[in-house]
Amino acid sequence: MCGNRPHSETKSWNTVSVLNVEKPAFMADDELTMLEASVGRFIAQNATDRDLERWRTNGSVDRELWRAAGAAGLLGASIPVEYGGAGGDFRHEIVLMEQLGLGGVQSFALPLHNAVIAPYLVSYGSEEQKLSWLPKVASGETVLAVAMSEPGAGSDLQAIKTTAQRDGDHYVINGQKTFITNGLHASLVVVACKTDRSAGAKGISLIAVETDKVTGFERGRLLHKLGQEARDTTELFFSDMRVPAENLLGGEEGRGFQQLMEKLPQERLVIAWQAMATIERALGVTIDYVKQRQAFGKRIIDFQNTQFKLAECKTQATIAKVFLYHCTEKLLNGSLDTATASMAKYWISEIGCQIIDECLQLHGGYGYMLEYPIAQMYKDARVHRIYGGANEIMKLLIARSL
Ligand SMILES: Cc1cc2nc3c(=O)[nH]c(=O)nc-3n(C[C@H](O)[C@H](O)[C@H](O)COP(=O)(O)OP(=O)(O)OC[C@H]3O[C@@H](n4cnc5c(N)ncnc54)[C@H](O)[C@@H]3O)c2cc1C
After folding, report:
1. Does ligand 1 have an atom closer than 6 angstroms to the CB of 184?
2. In whole angstroms, what is the distance from residue 21 CA to residue 61 CA?
């Protein structure tokens, strides 16, 4: 460290929240505390600053990281024990998301694998498929991706053009997907396709594609992104890709849109929890920073503007977390509706970007330097307002409840 350059916190950050929001009773559990500690150990051993930098440069985490996470028992946290998982529930996924977020390891798309895609297999896979697929999902032998978006259809999912035509005991899939997270490493991709082009939403089906077992499957280039650079986001191409008909999820054509609608509220909470963890980390590093950086003979925190800005941010963050616990309780008891989940995703991702922007401002020029974690958070957080349904779509869904 040279001259008066302020302390640059990265991975040494204490993975404890700066908020004083008490955990609700449903989160107070010794098993969750143990999991928290084991995620901390996993991060310390497998995601050093040097690892993070290498992953960003490569545009992808190392494939080995998935196996290490599997060996540490972090994958398949909420997959039932009989299918090789840990038999937990969404609370376990929250611990993972919080610790990865507070620890600055958001670029590892484990929450997508665990809490967004695996649930499709658990809920809609046949018994035989679950026994065959899920143990590998839990061990890291299989990495999961979900492929809905296409170059011509993102928000408007009904407009997808990828088709799956039945031919004997196979589907023949043709089309193209884009922006697919885990696109490089995934060996099981849940693909949204049209099994009936004339039937709108009712013509959409989800088909699980085991990429090692098919021909006509091709991965495109790694896409260069503004942030979350270590997530391997790619295009996928299907040309006369033959997939066994039994890989249709749910056993009946035309159920895909409904299946997506059923699972999207949880996906929205996953994004909200990731945004929340980033907010907490941003506040943590910033409070730390303004307490030691000096200007005009006093600490930055001693300016009333700094105190007011951080007071506003902490208030918003506290309200967000309380609301998120409220939504989580509803998810756990099966009563989380689409509008409420959309509120969490939309509002927490929006205030996340605002808070991180304020925090970056309080770092001055250092906040603009990528070696300072706040700059990376600024880049990483922006996509929370876009993926998992753009926030404008969230508002449409909320408006339907008016
Ligand atoms: C980093 C990253 C990772 C992703 N990972 C995945 C993945 O793993 N799998 C996957 O399937 N997809 C993934 N996506 C795609 C993502 O879900 C879409 O980008 C998103 O749903 C928006 O679709 P679009 O980009 O086609 O935008 P469009 O649908 O073209 O929309 C553009 C903008 O128009 C506005 N808009 C659109 N419709 C309306 C409306 N009805 N009312 C008002 N405004 C509207 C919104 O502001 C919207 O942001 C990822 C995207 C990114 C950037």
Report:
1. no
2. 32
Q: Give the up-direction half-sphere exposure of residue 50: CA atoms within 13 A in the CB hemisphere.
A: 2
Q: Which two tokens stand for residue 3?
A: 């001259």
Nearest of 45, 40, 44, 116 to residue 77 by alpha carbon:
116
Structural tokens at position 158: 């009904």
Which residue in 62, 144, 41 sits closest to 107, CA to CA? 62
Q: Is 317 in the pocket of ligand 1 (CB under 6 A)?
A: no
From 112, 157, 386, 393, give the residue whose CB has the most ligand 1 atoms within 8 Å, as the site to mutate: 386
The CB density around residue 24, as the number of other CB atoms within 10 Å, is 13
- What's the CA gap between 186 and 176, in Å, rounded? 16
Q: What is the pLDDT of residues 313-328, one digit of tens each?
A: 999 999 999 999 999 9
Residue 20 CA to residue 312 CA, distance in Å, equals 15
- Distance in Å, CA 270 to ligand 1 centroid: 17
Global pTM value: 0.96
Element (H, E) at 147: strand 144-147
How many other C-beta atoms are found inside a 10 Å radius of the C-beta of residue 173?
24
Distances (CA, A) of 88 to 71, 74, 114: 16, 11, 11
Q: Supply 381's token pair.
A: 């957080």
pLDDT tens, 21-40? 999 999 999 999 999 999 99
